[in-house]
Amino acid sequence: MTHPIPTLQVHASAVFSTIPEHLARRANGQRAGFLEGPSIDRAGNLLCVDIQAGRIYRISMDKRWEVLVEYDGTPNGLKLHKDGRAFIADRKNGLMVLNTATGSIECLLPGPRAGERFKGLNDLHFASNGDLYFTDQGRSGLQDPTGHVYKLTAAGGLETVIANAPSPNGLVLNKRETALYVAVTRANAVWRIDLDDPARRAGLFAQLPCAGPDGVALDDDGHVVVAHPTLGGVWVYSRIGLPLHFIATSAGEMTTNIAFGGADNKTLFITESRTGSILSARLPVAGRAMFSHA
User: Quick check: is 4 in a domain?
Assistant: First the structure.
């Protein structure tokens, strides 16, 4: 069977909303607005983290911004549980859990073992059975390929998936949940890890030009959607790694992370961290339903 080489489709994005000035100016004089970790809740609101300010925002579709919590931390990624709680990959504190109704936040897991701390968590993804996969990036890179990918089972057990990635970042399961796609930032690549293989063998799914990838998502056809900061855009790859679409930035080049939303789940929301903006673009295929919406 042959696979014809598709023609790359280029899409424009638009600015959906930018952090309001009263939130961008902090009391200590530092500027907020390094956005990451977008997720859509059941009401259609967009939640995201602000790494600089230690905040979690909730943004309505009529573009009203609300600070759910501001705390002493460095939140980097966020995913929603089906019970409404937000699980947060925090580089400083570990794995955090936010009650989105009350704004209370607590540390669920500070490190892989008692008395130890994670290197610096980055992003996370729920399987359909409630297992939580997350990346521990820290300062790993080609000089120190010791970044970890972990799985926290729904029953509470912690397992190491891989322990040799040079800066693991965003991640998402394939449709059958037999493989895990991981953005490996310092290798400028997306790896595919075979979860059915006891050795958890990893292969190269896509090699990116210039800077490395960040957030990753999946659409309903099994295509892999990859945010590419510094280049300023988002790629959509076929299941065999062919580039199908490129969504170009309309503000700034730090396109850090992505989430599908909208009434038909065909709107891609993109966090752009240079300008503190949320971008949006329409795609032909809906995003894969998240665990929070199951």
Answer: no
Query: For residue 169, how far is the Cα from the chain centroid?
Result: 8
Mean pLDDT of the 54-77 span: 97
How far apart are the C-alpha atoms of 219 and 217, rounded to whole Å? Answer: 7
pLDDT category of residue 211 using cuts at 50, 70 and 90: confident
With respect to residue 22, please indicate whether it lies within any of the assigned structural domains: yes
Task: Provide the domain count of the chain.
Answer: 1
In a domain, 164, yes or no: yes
Host domain of residue 283: 9-293
* Cα–Cα distance, 65 to 60 (Å, whole number): 7
The CATH number assigned to the domain holding 268 equals 2.120.10.30
Rounded to whole angstroms, how far apart are CA atoms 233 and 253?
7
User: Looking at the domain assignment, is residue 208 inside a domain?
Assistant: yes
Rounded Cα distance between 274 and 141, Å, is 23
| Cβ contact 96:52 at 8 Å | no
**pLDDT score of 3:** 66
Contacts of 34 (CB under 8 A, 6+ apart): 50, 51, 52, 273, 276
* pLDDT tens sequence across 153-190: 999 999 999 999 999 999 999 999 999 999 999 999 99
